[in-house]
Amino acid sequence: MLPDISNSVLSWLKNQPYDFKNINRGIERETLRVTNHGNIANSNHPKLLGSALKNEWITTDFSESLLEFITPVDSRIEYMFSFLRDIHRYVARILNEELMWSLSMPCRIEDENKIKLANYGTSNIGLMKTLYRKGLKNRYGAMMQTISGIHYNFSLPILFWQEWANFRKLRNCKETVSTGYLTLIRNYHRFGWIISYLFGASPAIYSNFIQRNNITLPFETNNKDTFWLPYATSLRLSDIGYSNKYQNILKITFNSLEEYVHILRNAVNTPFKKFAEIGIKDKDGNRIQLNTNILQIENEFYSPIRPKCATHFSEVLSDALLKNGIEYIEIRSLDINPFSAIGIDKTQIYFLDLFLIWCILIDVSEMTIEELHYSKKNWKIVTLEGRKPNKKINIGHNNKKYSILDVGKIIFDDLYKLAEILDMNQNSVKYQKICDQFLLYLYDPELTYSARILNIIKKEGIISAGLSLSKKYHNLLRLEPLHLLQEKDFKIKARNSILEQKRIENSDLLEFDDYLNNFNKKNNI
């Protein structure tokens, strides 16, 4: 199956002038705190940034040193980027002796056992979050969990879904929205590798990452600290990066919400031999993972894209999805953009908007297990060898091979048609200009982020290159004035988050073991 927007869909779009003006977006940017020498920081999460448990803007992910910055959901791209940059500006001023790492693949980590797990305090929910991370460490290793990326949250306005339902003669309800997002997700699995081709920026890794993971791929090296694959786009998304080979047994095709939830719940409730061998507790009786199932909790499911919806306190995602339907999708396949001080730029967002809308509008066929297999294979090909001349991938149910360039040109032909309509309805040419810009990347792989950063890394080494960029952006950001927020806003947010964490800790009535048992019973674990 090759992509194509039908003429009837294009004609319908021309009569929908306001549908795409209120797209809601949000960005979550991860970045390691590092020393001025390029080592992972061993310090605790800065107190001036508040409670990582309750600060909605600035938190941590796997470790104390892995920062995560979160923008509020908003339809204004300028607002979102100003907000994200203000967070970076403020944190740069706080980190007097440390830097924010500007690459997806981690800095120098001599001993992964010394990586501090994220600490969320003494409340039951805080202890559970840390224990979950301890489980990740014991299952996959701490090194993998230090890889950083961008998560992009995206949702279309309800007006679009209402008019889309009328056009497709579908029921106008939450099931229609969920079905539309599942179509997007399936097509992202089919063709989202083009995002890694264009925006992948992790073609190289530090030497101890290879040694820790016993990697045998044909790397080239500077005989010092840096290894790379000459045509790689995103090692972060490859099997040697942020991936989980054990989850391949799940075979989630995203053909229906009920199927997705069913498989996810089964994974959370099905023991897995590999993890059972780790055990629940160590020899001293300390818990070392939440459970021995395929997934400890639903968030452990790794995928380049996931369906999401808002959840209430203590509500699990699968319950919320069945009750409310899919409300937005989370793109998880974006590397840190090393050419942006905040890890992402506006051109990427405009292209993502265009591409994600296109993923909804093209073929709505269900995905077979065989097609899912070949889709995953395509992602692997692109992440490891995407810039190699005449590299071919497998497309469709018949597993027919096409060159990346040929499929990319077909995708861009459709994107141009969509861009013209969106620009016409918004009295603009921005989407067409975005297509012009990134089409050049398709014809000339040396323009891609991965090729450009690799040229720098090959000359300087990954640690020196990462440090140079990190220091450059640190000095730039800390001198810039805040644009949307004020310093007092960050201080108030930090203070309130600390008070809220203390309130939660003081209100706990159960011992941690009893809390976990109740959690497991509630979720049938």
Automatic annotation (TrEMBL):
Catalytic activity from the UniProt record: L-cysteine + L-glutamate + ATP = gamma-L-glutamyl-L-cysteine + ADP + phosphate + H(+)
The Glutamate--cysteine ligase domain sits at 12-382
Cite a GO CC annotation. Answer: cytosol
Enumerate the InterPro entries for this protein.
Gln_synth/guanido_kin_cat_dom, Glu_cys_ligase, Glut_cys_ligase
Q: Name one Pfam family in it.
A: Glu_cys_ligase
SUPFAM superfamilies tied to this protein: Glutamine synthetase/guanido kinase
Which keywords does the record carry? Answer: ATP-binding, Glutathione biosynthesis, Ligase, Nucleotide-binding
* Molecular function terms from GO: ATP binding; glutamate-cysteine ligase activity; metal ion binding
**GO terms classed as biological process:** glutathione biosynthetic process
* E.C. code: 6.3.2.2
Pathway(s) the chain acts in: Sulfur metabolism; glutathione biosynthesis; glutathione from L-cysteine and L-glutamate: step 1/2
The record ties this protein, via NCBIfam families, to: glu_cys_ligase
What family does the Swiss-Prot or TrEMBL record give for this protein? Belongs to the glutamate--cysteine ligase type 1 family. Type 1 subfamily.
This chain's protein is named Glutamate--cysteine ligase
Natural source organism: Candidatus Pantoea edessiphila
